[in-house]
Input
Amino acid sequence: MIKLTNNKAKYFLALLMSLSFVTGCSSIKTYPNSYKKNMTVKTATSSGSILQDVNTYLHIYTLDSKCKSDYLGTVNLDKPVKKVGLPVNKNLFLDFAFVKEGFFSSSSSRINSETLLTPRKGRLYEADVFYEDNIYDVAIWQKKSRKAKKRKLKLIPYEACKAKK
Output
Protein backbone atom coordinates (compact mmCIF):
# COMPACT_ATOMS: atom_id res chain seq x y z
CA MET A 1 0.00 0.00 0.00
CA ILE A 2 1.26 3.46 -0.91
CA LYS A 3 1.38 5.94 1.94
CA LEU A 4 0.85 9.51 0.83
CA THR A 5 2.78 11.90 3.01
CA ASN A 6 2.50 15.24 1.32
CA ASN A 7 -0.66 17.18 0.56
CA LYS A 8 0.09 17.52 -3.18
CA ALA A 9 0.11 13.74 -3.59
CA LYS A 10 -3.15 13.46 -1.65
CA TYR A 11 -4.81 16.11 -3.82
CA PHE A 12 -3.54 14.40 -6.98
CA LEU A 13 -4.98 11.06 -5.84
CA ALA A 14 -8.31 12.71 -4.98
CA LEU A 15 -8.35 14.33 -8.44
CA LEU A 16 -7.70 10.97 -10.13
CA MET A 17 -10.48 9.31 -8.15
CA SER A 18 -12.88 12.14 -9.03
CA LEU A 19 -12.01 11.92 -12.72
CA SER A 20 -12.60 8.17 -12.80
CA PHE A 21 -16.00 8.71 -11.17
CA VAL A 22 -16.97 11.52 -13.56
CA THR A 23 -15.86 9.64 -16.68
CA GLY A 24 -18.02 6.67 -15.77
CA CYS A 25 -15.39 4.13 -14.88
CA SER A 26 -17.25 0.83 -14.73
CA SER A 27 -16.86 -2.92 -14.88
CA ILE A 28 -18.46 -3.23 -18.33
CA LYS A 29 -16.12 -4.94 -20.75
CA THR A 30 -16.55 -5.33 -24.47
CA TYR A 31 -17.55 -8.84 -25.53
CA PRO A 32 -14.63 -10.30 -27.54
CA ASN A 33 -17.01 -11.66 -30.25
CA SER A 34 -14.38 -14.17 -31.37
CA TYR A 35 -16.67 -17.16 -31.93
CA LYS A 36 -18.16 -18.05 -35.30
CA LYS A 37 -20.98 -15.56 -35.92
CA ASN A 38 -24.15 -17.54 -35.22
CA MET A 39 -26.52 -14.77 -34.06
CA THR A 40 -27.82 -11.76 -35.95
CA VAL A 41 -29.25 -9.05 -33.72
CA LYS A 42 -31.64 -6.62 -35.39
CA THR A 43 -32.21 -3.53 -33.25
CA ALA A 44 -34.82 -0.78 -33.66
CA THR A 45 -35.09 1.85 -30.93
CA SER A 46 -36.73 5.23 -30.49
CA SER A 47 -37.22 7.14 -27.26
CA GLY A 48 -40.18 9.05 -28.67
CA SER A 49 -38.54 12.35 -27.74
CA ILE A 50 -35.81 14.49 -29.23
CA LEU A 51 -34.63 15.18 -25.67
CA GLN A 52 -33.98 11.53 -24.85
CA ASP A 53 -31.88 8.74 -26.26
CA VAL A 54 -32.12 4.97 -25.93
CA ASN A 55 -28.97 2.87 -25.92
CA THR A 56 -29.27 -0.89 -26.22
CA TYR A 57 -26.79 -3.48 -25.00
CA LEU A 58 -26.47 -7.25 -24.91
CA HIS A 59 -24.70 -8.56 -21.79
CA ILE A 60 -23.52 -12.15 -22.24
CA TYR A 61 -22.82 -14.60 -19.41
CA THR A 62 -22.02 -18.32 -19.26
CA LEU A 63 -23.74 -20.40 -16.57
CA ASP A 64 -22.26 -23.40 -14.83
CA SER A 65 -24.25 -26.43 -13.60
CA LYS A 66 -25.16 -24.56 -10.38
CA CYS A 67 -26.37 -21.48 -12.32
CA LYS A 68 -23.35 -19.42 -11.27
CA SER A 69 -22.73 -16.82 -13.95
CA ASP A 70 -19.46 -15.71 -15.52
CA TYR A 71 -19.62 -12.37 -17.33
CA LEU A 72 -18.14 -12.64 -20.83
CA GLY A 73 -18.80 -9.06 -21.92
CA THR A 74 -21.20 -6.60 -23.51
CA VAL A 75 -22.15 -5.95 -27.13
CA ASN A 76 -23.22 -2.37 -27.85
CA LEU A 77 -26.25 -2.71 -30.14
CA ASP A 78 -25.60 0.68 -31.70
CA LYS A 79 -26.26 -0.39 -35.30
CA PRO A 80 -29.47 -1.76 -36.86
CA VAL A 81 -27.79 -5.15 -37.44
CA LYS A 82 -24.97 -6.76 -35.48
CA LYS A 83 -23.45 -10.22 -35.97
CA VAL A 84 -22.51 -11.94 -32.72
CA GLY A 85 -20.61 -15.16 -32.15
CA LEU A 86 -22.00 -17.14 -29.22
CA PRO A 87 -20.20 -20.18 -27.78
CA VAL A 88 -22.03 -23.37 -28.79
CA ASN A 89 -23.21 -26.07 -26.40
CA LYS A 90 -22.75 -23.78 -23.39
CA ASN A 91 -25.51 -22.54 -21.14
CA LEU A 92 -25.77 -18.80 -21.61
CA PHE A 93 -27.63 -16.00 -19.93
CA LEU A 94 -28.41 -13.18 -22.38
CA ASP A 95 -29.42 -9.84 -20.88
CA PHE A 96 -30.77 -7.26 -23.33
CA ALA A 97 -30.64 -3.85 -21.64
CA PHE A 98 -32.44 -0.71 -22.81
CA VAL A 99 -30.97 2.42 -21.22
CA LYS A 100 -32.95 5.63 -21.66
CA GLU A 101 -31.12 8.87 -20.95
CA GLY A 102 -32.11 12.52 -21.13
CA PHE A 103 -29.84 15.03 -22.86
CA PHE A 104 -30.36 17.71 -20.21
CA SER A 105 -30.73 15.41 -17.24
CA SER A 106 -28.39 13.27 -15.21
CA SER A 107 -31.07 10.63 -14.69
CA SER A 108 -31.46 7.46 -16.67
CA SER A 109 -33.75 4.45 -16.63
CA ARG A 110 -33.02 0.86 -17.54
CA ILE A 111 -35.30 -1.95 -18.67
CA ASN A 112 -34.03 -5.49 -19.18
CA SER A 113 -35.24 -8.48 -21.14
CA GLU A 114 -33.38 -11.67 -20.42
CA THR A 115 -33.27 -15.28 -21.44
CA LEU A 116 -31.37 -18.50 -20.99
CA LEU A 117 -30.06 -19.99 -24.22
CA THR A 118 -27.85 -22.93 -25.15
CA PRO A 119 -26.75 -22.33 -28.75
CA ARG A 120 -26.41 -25.54 -30.74
CA LYS A 121 -23.69 -26.32 -33.24
CA GLY A 122 -24.86 -25.73 -36.80
CA ARG A 123 -27.84 -23.59 -35.74
CA LEU A 124 -28.30 -19.91 -36.49
CA TYR A 125 -30.08 -17.44 -34.23
CA GLU A 126 -31.81 -14.14 -34.84
CA ALA A 127 -32.81 -11.65 -32.17
CA ASP A 128 -35.30 -8.86 -32.89
CA VAL A 129 -34.78 -6.13 -30.32
CA PHE A 130 -37.34 -3.31 -30.20
CA TYR A 131 -37.90 -0.25 -28.01
CA GLU A 132 -40.23 2.67 -28.70
CA ASP A 133 -41.95 5.04 -26.27
CA ASN A 134 -41.42 2.79 -23.22
CA ILE A 135 -42.65 -0.30 -25.08
CA TYR A 136 -40.04 -2.99 -25.62
CA ASP A 137 -39.81 -6.49 -26.99
CA VAL A 138 -37.14 -9.10 -27.61
CA ALA A 139 -37.81 -12.13 -29.80
CA ILE A 140 -35.27 -14.85 -30.51
CA TRP A 141 -35.51 -17.22 -33.46
CA GLN A 142 -33.59 -20.40 -34.30
CA LYS A 143 -33.05 -22.00 -37.68
CA LYS A 144 -31.01 -24.90 -39.06
CA SER A 145 -29.52 -23.00 -42.00
CA ARG A 146 -29.65 -19.59 -43.66
CA LYS A 147 -32.53 -20.64 -45.94
CA ALA A 148 -34.43 -22.78 -43.43
CA LYS A 149 -37.67 -21.71 -41.82
CA LYS A 150 -37.08 -20.09 -38.44
CA ARG A 151 -38.70 -21.12 -35.17
CA LYS A 152 -39.47 -18.63 -32.40
CA LEU A 153 -37.92 -19.53 -29.05
CA LYS A 154 -39.59 -18.87 -25.75
CA LEU A 155 -37.67 -16.45 -23.52
CA ILE A 156 -36.63 -18.29 -20.37
CA PRO A 157 -35.91 -16.18 -17.28
CA TYR A 158 -32.81 -16.73 -15.16
CA GLU A 159 -34.95 -18.01 -12.28
CA ALA A 160 -35.80 -21.08 -14.39
CA CYS A 161 -32.16 -22.17 -14.16
CA LYS A 162 -32.27 -22.26 -10.36
CA ALA A 163 -35.68 -23.96 -10.39
CA LYS A 164 -34.14 -26.96 -12.20
CA LYS A 165 -31.64 -27.50 -9.39
